[in-house]
Specification:
Rossmann fold, 269 residues, single chain, alpha/beta
C-alpha cells in the first residue's frame, strides 16, 4: 500500500484510462463515482475531459446547454474552477462537464505557457472541497489526456478481453512511464493503482488467461481489481441516467462495483 498525498494534501485524483475506445472507461468512472458519493459518503468531483462528453450526458446533462465546459476552464487564463463545477442529482457528486469544444481546446492549450499543468492548477483550487476526483479522459494521447495524467496521483487502467484494448494499454503505459521518469512534470507522483477488467465473461477462459499472463509482466502493478461482468443491465441503466446501484440494486454487478470501490479506497488510504 502507498500513500498518494502527504498530510497537507487530502484530495485524491484518479484518472480512469485506456487509449482505445470501447473499454468502458466512462461506465466505470460513472458507477464508481456515484457509489463513492452515495454509499461511501465521499465528496466526489468527476471531470469529463473527453470531447465526446459521454460522462456529461450519462450524468443527465445536455452539452448543448452548458455555458461553462471544461474546455473554457483549460484555456482561460484566470478561470476560477468553482465556476465550472455543476451539481449532479446524485448525493455528494459534482461534475466539471465537457462539450465538443474540448476537441478544439487541444490546439489552444498548445499555446499556453506551462500547458502540461493547466488541469493540475485548476484542480488545486478545489483541493479542500473533495475527497476524490475521477477524470474520464479521451481515447487519445493528446495534450488534454497528458494534462489529466499529470494532474493525477493514480491511474486505474481499464481493459476488456480483446487485443485492441491491450494495444490501448501499451500506449498509455508508455506515456505513464515517460511522466514518471520526468521529475519536472511528475509533480503529483503518478502511480498505477491497478488493472480492472470490464465486460468480463467467465466463459472466455482461454482469452482471460492469456491477457492475465500478459498483464502480469507489467512492472510495478500489484493490484488486479474486481472484474466487472458483461451485462446489458448497465446499458439499460444508462438510458435511465442512473448508476447500477440505484437502477437494479440486487444485480450481481452492483456487488462487483462495491467491491471495486472498497479495493480502490484501500489503495487511497
Amino acid at each position: 500500500m502507498f500513500h498518494l498525498y502527504d498530510n497537507e494534501k487530502k484530495m485524491q485524483i484518479i484518472c480512469i484510462a485506456n487509449q482505445k475506445g470501447g473499454a468502458g472507461k466512462t461506465t466505470l468512472t460513472y458507477n464508481v463515482g456515484c457509489m463513492l458519493g452515495d454509499e461511501f459518503n465521499k465528496r466526489v468531483l468527476m471531470v469529463d475531459v473527453d470531447g465526446q462528453a459521454n460522462l456529461t450526458t450519462t450524468l443527465d446533462f445536455d452539452p448543448d446547454e452548458l455555458s461553462k465546459p471544461v474546455s473554457a476552464l483549460l484555456t482561460r487564463k484566470d478561470a476560477v474552477t468553482k465556476d465550472y463545477v455543476v451539481s449532479t442529482k446524485f448525493r455528494n457528486v459534482d461534475l466539471i462537464p465537457s462539450t465538443q469544444s474540448t476537441f478544439a481546446a487541444e490546439k489552444e492549450i498548445l499555446n499556453v505557457v506551462g500547458r502540461e499543468f493547466v488541469l493540475s492548477r485548476a484542480l488545486d483550487q478545489v483541493r479542500d472541497d473533495y475527497d476524490v476526483v475521477l477524470i474520464d479522459i479521451p481515447p487519445n494521447l493528446g495534450v488534454v489526456s497528458l494534462n489529466a495524467l499529470i494532474a493525477s496521483n493514480g491511474v486505474v487502467l481499464v481493459y476488456t478481453a480483446s487485443e485492441f484494448a491491450l494495444d490501448g494499454l501499451s500506449q498509455i503505459l508508455a506515456a505513464i512511464d515517460e511522466i514518471q521518469d520526468n521529475s519536472h512534470i511528475n509533480i503529483n507522483k503518478l502511480k498505477i493503482l491497478g488493472f480492472v477488467q470490464n465486460r468480463f465473461k467467465s466463459s472466455n477462459k482461454v482469452v482471460n488467461s492469456k491477457i492475465k499472463n500478459i498483464l502480469e509482466g507489467v512492472p510495478d502493478v500489484q493490484n488486479y481489481f474486481t472484474a466487472i461482468s458483461d451485462t446489458t443491465e448497465i446499458e439499460k441503466s444508462q438510458f435511465d441516467h442512473l448508476p447500477m446501484h440505484l437502477f437494479n440494486r440486487n444485480h450481481k454487478v452492483v456487488d462487483q462495483f462495491r467491491q471495486l470501490v472498497k479495493e480502490l479506497l484501500v489503495c487511497l488510504a
